From TrEMBL:
Keyword Transmembrane: yes
Protein name (database record): DUF1579 domain-containing protein
Ranges that cross the membrane: 26-43
Species for this entry: Aliikangiella coralliicola
Keywords: Membrane, Transmembrane, Transmembrane helix
Length: 183
């Protein structure tokens, strides 16, 4: 006894065997196109996904380690800016910089396939972190933005052993940090 798909396939073969070769080619073409169109989306090829939550991303590898430098532009002038980024037990990248004027807490993590940044500056007694989501990136630049991109963006650029971080607040340059890897 034949199941439905086996019976259908044999019927198609029987019909094709009665047609000339030109008609056979068109019939096969039609069958393949129809099959392609009705393949469930879950079985179709998908673009590569972001790094899984269980593995550090390329970004994590680039930023992990001890960095020394300066916040060359801030609301209170130039400040020494040293930070050590480390991967935590829950696969987040965390670092804190104590500038004297405030502490800056940087927490990078993956959520729903997107790289995110939870940033806290304790300047003027602030204790509320801000969440930013990666908006775009290329090989050496990562841009994170607030849900209102006109409010806050963080641009992180990698160049050899140098990292430049630009913080744009209310569409104006707010802070610029230049760091070199301490080896």
């Amino acid at each position: 006894m034949l199941n439905g798909s086996e019976s259908h396939r044999r019927g198609v073969v029987k019909v094709l065997s009665k047609k000339n070769s030109s008609e056979q080619k068109w019939a096969l073409f039609f069958i393949f196109v129809t099959a392609f169109l009705i393949v469930p989306p879950s079985l179709k090829a998908r673009p590569p996904q972001a790094t899984s939550d269980n593995q550090p991303s390329d970004f994590f590898r680039l930023l992990t380690g001890e960095w020394k430098g300066m916040a060359v532009k801030t609301p209170v002038g130039s400040l020494e800016y040293n930070i050590d980024f480390a991967i935590t037990d829950d696969n987040q990248l965390y670092g804190v910089a104590d500038t004297g004027a405030s502490s800056h807490h940087w927490r990078f993590f993956q959520d729903e396939g997107k790289l995110q940044l939870k940033f806290l500056s304790t300047f003027r007694g602030n204790s509320t972190p801000v969440l930013l989501v990666q908006n775009k990136s290329d090989n050496n630049q990562f841009v994170f933005q607030h849900k209102n991109p006109k409010y806050l963006q963080v641009w992180i650029n990698f160049s050899n052993q140098l990292v430049t971080i630009k913080i744009i607040l209310r569409e104006q340059p707010h802070v610029r940090i230049e760091l070199t890897k301490n080896e």
